[in-house]
Amino acid sequence: MKNIQKTIMKIIVVMVMVVVPFSCQDRLDDLRDNPNAVTSIDDAALFTKAVRSLFLGTTDQSVSRFSGHYGHYFVAGSTARIPDQYGDGFDGQYNGMFNDMYGGVIRHIEEVLEITSAEETKNEVRHSIANIIAVLGYAKITDAFGEIPFTEGGKGKTQDIILPKYDTQEVIYREMIARLTTSIDILKTADASMAYPNSDPVFNNDMDKWVRFANSVRLRLAMRLRYADSALSQQTVAQCLSEPLMEDNAHNAFMIETEGNGNAWFTMRTGFPSIKMSTMLIDQLQATTDPRLPVFVSEDANGSFSGMTNGLDDAAFGASNFAAKSDMGTRLSSPDSKLYIMTASETWLLRAEAALVYNNDPTQANTLYRKGIETSLNQWEVDASEIVSFMASPTATLSGSNDEEQIGTQMWLALIPNYFEGWSHIRRTGYPVIADRTAANLSQGVTNGVLPTRFLYSSFELSSNNDNVMEAISRQGANKIDTPVWWDKN
After folding, report:
1. Residue 408 and residue 188: Cα distance in Å, rounded?
2. Given CB 3.0 to 4.6 Å as the disulfide criterion, which of 39, 42, 65, 461 pairs with 61?
3. Could you tell me the pLDDT band of residue 143, with boundaries at 50, 70 and 90?
4. Total domains present in the chain
5. Name one Pfam family in it (predicted).
């Protein structure tokens, strides 16, 4: 009898063990099918993350260690100064910058593009806005490294592409311009309620501003092609001038960082690595009595403006009294200082260059040039009387003999604090002139004193995606920091 009872109990236990997992699975299936459960990632949150990453990228190490030096805006202290000596021994930094650029903006925005183009979640308005952010993200990476993964870039998660091919800059630029053109056409008549009404940290869902922004970015890219593809450049510029552009500072694309210590330049002004402004920048502002001097540069302990010479060798740097030099201006480097991606002043100056070289109209170029300077002065809230005085100075009028240099120098200033774009501008135009280093106390680095023109593909990228990277190098040229990118032909 007892054996029968034991047998029955064993059968019951086995039945319970079999039934319970199915019951649990049914419960999990119920949860998966729950109409109130979260079944997909909100593309609005991903969009906001991508936008934030884009703006924070204007203060990352690609700027604080590299392009800010290359653009002769400042000199950083400690080990952050070493790229200023035109060396290339920064494999870890090159790899980190490459990964961060893809892992921040591109990873998130590619997911947004995937979601907003999928049949069940299609939204062409959101897709168009996301493409503008994608273009800006890819533009920075390609301008930094040259050929990069573009058509297959950032798709490891969405399309399981682990070893993406590299595209030529010509292909990338043509596609970026095409994407912007499509976005502009859609957004001109877009229903704002279909965009990001509660998740747009740039323009608060203002479609007119998005159109102006996209068209101004397109103008930037078009002028960057001036020496590489003049026909496409002129054609695109004409197209841009037929559409609304950024015209006043209400159109500026900016963000204020509210997390942590706020604007990263604040930490670098008050902590590590310390930033001191370039002698070249201060000399330009002082020589022209530019009222933006106290905006861009802080007074030193003596109440003066004193800069650091870019490229000093170690001995000269040690004797430079670095700590006593002028810091970055507090308007640029306070916790709540604005981070800019593009401004109306840049747009006016691009138009001035286009009028000069494409329309052969120095009178119109001068009008646009003056508008660009005045817009920049107003952006920084320069006193009205100082604006009047500066606009009456020779600096604010094209001379007729060195007009391109004048426009180029004012663009260099107007791009502050977007220092990466300042370096790209110098590479394209040659203005302001960054002289080759010949003085005994300057480091010539691996470029023989010539301004670096790109970042290197890292050893990790070479080893992990070797075939595709080597194909890019075979087209582009040696993996060196003085190999120019495709559009850098001036």
Report:
1. 31
2. 65
3. very high
4. 1
5. SusD-like_2
Question: Which pLDDT band, with edges at 50, 70 and 90, does 158 fall under?
Answer: low
Q: In the numeric block, which tokens belong to residue 484?
A: 């120019």
Cα end-to-end span (Å), the chain: 100
pLDDT in tens, 183-223: 999 999 999 999 999 999 999 999 999 999 999 999 999 99
> Stretch 341-359: mean pLDDT, rounded?
98
276 phi and psi angles, rounded to 5 deg: -120, 140
Domain range enclosing 441:
43-255+337-476
Going by C-alpha positions, the residue among 283, 257, 275 that lies closest to residue 61 is 275
Average pLDDT over every residue of 296-302: 96
- Residue 179 falls inside a structural domain: yes
Say if residue 18's pLDDT is above 60: no
Query: How far is 270 from 437, CA to CA, in rounded Å?
Result: 30
Q: Tokens 């970026």 label which residue? A: 176
* pLDDT over threshold 60, residue 34: no
Count the alpha carbons within 13 Å of 490 in the hemisphere toward its beta carbon. Answer: 18
Contact 69, 83 (CB under 8 A): yes
Q: What is the mean pLDDT of residues 479-490?
A: 96
Query: At 380, which CATH number?
Result: 1.25.40.390
- Which burial class, exposed, middle or buried, applies to 368 when counting CB atoms under 10 A from its CB (0-12, 13-18, 19+)? buried
Give the global pTM.
Answer: 0.91
Q: Which amino acid is at 17?
A: M
In a domain, 31, yes or no: no
Comparing 6 with 62, the larger pLDDT belongs to 62
Residue 144 lies in a domain: yes
Residues with Cβ < 8 Å from 201, sequence gap 6 or more? 48, 51, 52, 255
In DSSP notation, 38-76 reads --S--HHHHHHHHHHHHHHGGGSHIIIIIIHHHTTSEEE
Residue 307, in any domain of the structure = no
